[in-house]
Amino acid sequence: KVGWYNAVLQPAFHLPYPDDTLAFVVLSTPSMFDKALKPFVKKERLKMIRDPVDQCVSHHLSRVKEKFPDQRVDVMFDYEMLPSRKPKFLAQTAAHVAGAAYYYQRKDVKLDPWGKKKIFGVCIHPKYGGWFAIRALLLFPDIQVPFLEQPAPVDCVSTEEKRIELLEQFNFHWQDGCYRDIIEVKERYSEEQKAYFATPPAERFRLLGLSQ
Q1: Structure pTM?
Q2: Which of these, 27, 33, 155, 176, could form a disulfide with 193 (CB 3.0-4.6 Å)?
Q3: Cβ neighbours of residue 54 under 8 Å, at least 6 residues apart?
Q4: pLDDT tens for each residue of 35-62
């Protein structure tokens, strides 16, 4: 429910919907690369592709919207900004309140070792660890769900030592991706997918066999 999200954020970040409005957080799993992105690129090869992943996600969510012709469906993407340069929604907070992934933050560590350093939080999924992404929010403004019960996210990094290790790896060594394997995972990105996301965006077209 939108109210779960708004309840944990300052008013400046609130979503402009009634508290009981139904919302879905959309995640992409490791298999998205082979099952969705590559077929999308192959099909769209002759058209203008700006950002393959963003356009692929947008394409699939527009197909979801088509399944609800009688409903208003609002979509917010993780990369969208408001005119104030604030993100349209805080993806990691949304994932946490929906029970999709646990958002580990500095406040989850009792004995904070970082002093005045800025420490960013990170979501970990109980099945995929850090090998996933939060892509969008689907909102159904005409559907109110007052009786929906809030599921708690799975606290899969439960010890103080592991949480410190996770936040250290994510903040200071994120390039090596070690934080993604903080827990035992069921599935991770393929080598091809790792190479794609490790490549600067402007050079990714070449990897997909596209001219820019």
Answers
A1: 0.92
A2: 33
A3: 77, 79
A4: 999 999 888 866 777 889 999 999 999 9
Q: Of 7, 3, 30, give the one whose Cα is nearest residue 17.
A: 3
The confidence score (pLDDT) of residue 210 equals 66
Measured CA to CA, the distance from residue 57 to residue 41 in angstroms comes to 12
Token output for 148: 């929906």
Task: Please state the φ and ψ torsions of residue 91, each to the nearest 5 degrees.
Answer: -60, -45
Q: Give the pairing type, strands 74-77 and 133-144.
A: antiparallel
Dist CA 160 CA 158 (whole Å)? 7
Contact between residue 18 and residue 174 where contact means Cβ atoms under 8 Å apart: no
Amino acid identity, residue 152? A
pLDDT lower than 50: segments of the chain = none
| CA distance readout (Å), 109 to 106, 163, 165, 168 | 6, 7, 11, 12
Place of tokens 């949480």: 163
